[in-house]
Design brief:
Blueprint lengths: L6 H16 L10 H5 L3 E9 L2 E2 L8 E4 L4 E5 L12 E6 L3 E4 L4 E8 L3 E8 L11 E8 L1
Antiparallel strand pairs: 1-2, 1-3, 1-9, 3-4, 4-5, 5-6, 6-7, 7-8, 8-9
Amino acid sequence: MTSIKNPLIFLLSVCMVSFVLSCKKGDEAGPSQKDLLTNGAWQLESVTLDGEDITDLYEGLSITFNKSGTYSITPEQNPLVSLWFSAGIYALTSNNILITDASIEYTIEKLDQNQLVLSFNYTAPSSRVSSVSGFYRFTFTK
């Protein structure tokens, strides 16, 4: 029977082997929220206002968020119904996107590689030509 001459070396060896075996490749973090948001153009799938489908008012809408903190919309939307400027600046927080030009804060309900869902409450200005107040939900896909 072999005896262990130096228990400290044996203990360190066991710890090193355990540490190496516990490191798995699958432990790597996935893409960040900003990486997901800025990975190409998002195509509009649907829009609801207080639960009612109003997608036809935004037909063909596409939005691209850039890593530099800017965004752009194509095609430019009818200003009578659009809640987006054709281009502008945004700020991303943990669960929100703040469109600074319009001072609208969109809640990120869902963001993954295939889908972006944004919602917000909007109070229209008190003018005759403006969007409608209410709870909006925009669903975009890749």
